[in-house]
Each structure stands twice: as C-alpha cells, then as structure tokens.
# Entry
Amino acid sequence: MRRQNLIFWIVMVLVAIGVVQGLLSNWLSLIIPLVLIALVYVLYKYPPKRFRRGPKVKPSARTAAKIAASQRRSAAAPRSSSDGKRKHYPFQVIDGNKGKNDEDLPKYH
# Structure
C-alpha cells in the first residue's frame, strides 16, 4: 500500500513538472484544449433549444379531474395499512383433494 502511494505521488509530481514545462515552452499549444473545455462547459450549461425539454402536454379535462379528485381524497384522509380495508379480488384458494401430510413435503423446502 505504501509503495503504491509513493509511486502515485512520484507520477503526479512528474506530470506537474511536464505541465509547467509545457506551459513555459509552448503556451500556444494550450489554446485548443482550453477552447474545447470552454465549449463543452458552455454547451452543458446552456444547451441548444432543440436539446432542451419541450413544453409539457396539457392534460385533458377528464385527466385533470381524476388528478384533482385523487389529491382531494389523499389530503382528506391519508391511507394507512391499519385501516382494515382490504381489496377483494375475484379469486379464491381451492383446497385440493390430497390431504396435507408433512412427510410428503419435498426435501428442498
């Protein structure tokens, strides 16, 4: 761990020396990367109109009424799991003809 840390810092120092030397000797070659970075930043911060989100679609009157009704219902009485209300489904469990025997259970259960 200590050796990797030492190697990392040696590489970072060499990179810093190379950047400083490059800036001092040929600072004009740095213009292209700086312009590209600035361009990416400006496009990220202020995207063109065709890439922005479009206007929201106005919901129909029927959909707006449903949303308003559900908001009124949820604001008036918040639902909780202890209300005692249950949904009733049209399904029921039908017991089979086999008797329940613990010995017949598969071994992987």
